[in-house]
Amino acid sequence: MGITLSLGGEELIFTRWEPWQGCNRCGERGERKRLGYCYIMEPPQKPVPCWLYLGDMKLWSSRMRPEMQVEACQVPCQTSTLDVITFDNFEISEDSGSVWLTCPQGSIYRPILWEANNIPLTWQGQLSNQDYNTILEPTNGGRQLRVFEPAVYRCFVKQELVARFNPKPVPDLPEILSQDARSVLKALKLMLLVGIVLGLLGLLLKLFHPSHHKRSNQVLLVK
């Protein structure tokens, strides 16, 4: 329990922290989080939650949400009991260049781990700007992940795999136009080839099968 602010009188506002949640990874280094809630104490009364003390007042709205702390952890693995839920073929938005993935059964109150191509995505990596292509959403404890590049994304809840995602990029317009242009060019080449073949066949027919009028002229000349 850490006192953080005096309200001007004897009231004190502070954060009361819950116990640490379980580690989000087993067998290797992971992370765990704990939540802190805003409390106000007015001696000699007992501390009460800020939202209850303030009632309908809209002050300190940001303090109404749980705070979150994260630290490193490492625990042994146990036998998995959850079935894998697979989600595939999510399309990355053309407008935003990204897509939000939601981990089923995950919440701010449960340990969550995301992986991209088997590489863990950590809060430490996000805070140190090491993970440029993903964003863990802190307001829901990492239940949602914003991704900007295609990869195989997996989420774990309480160290157990619950979902797999495979977002696909939207094809670029120049690429689509290029494919259409190649198709049109192939069609034109085919039409040109057919025209050449038909022209050659017509020429051969004229050479080996003279017209009736030409044969009549040749007979008259012999007489």
Report on the architecture of this protein.
The protein is 26% helix and 29% strand. The strands form 3 sheets. Strands 1, 2, 3, 4 and 5 form a 5-stranded antiparallel sheet that branches. A 5-stranded mixed sheet has the order 6-13-12-8-9. It has a 3-stranded antiparallel sheet with strand order 7-11-10, with no helix packed on it. The chain is elongated. The protein is α+β, with helices and mostly antiparallel strands and 223 residues long. The longest helix has 36 residues, at 173-208. The N and C termini lie far apart (129 Å). The model is unreliable at 216-223 (pLDDT under 50). It folds into 3 domains: 2-73, no CATH class; 85-165, Immunoglobulin-like, CATH 2.60.40; 177-204.
What share of the residues lie within helices?
A: 25-40%
The name of the CATH topology of the largest domain is Immunoglobulin-like
Secondary-structure element string = EEEEHEEEEEHEEEEHH
| First-last Cα distance | 129 Å
Shape verdict: elongated
> What structural class do helix, strand and pairing data support?
alpha+beta
Regions with pLDDT < 50 over 5+ consecutive residues? 216-223
What portion of residues belong to β-strands? 25-35%
Helix count, DSSP H or I runs of 4 or more residues: 4
Membrane topology: Single-pass type I membrane protein
Organism: Ursus americanus (American black bear)
InterPro entries: FAM187A/B
Protein name: Family with sequence similarity 187 member B
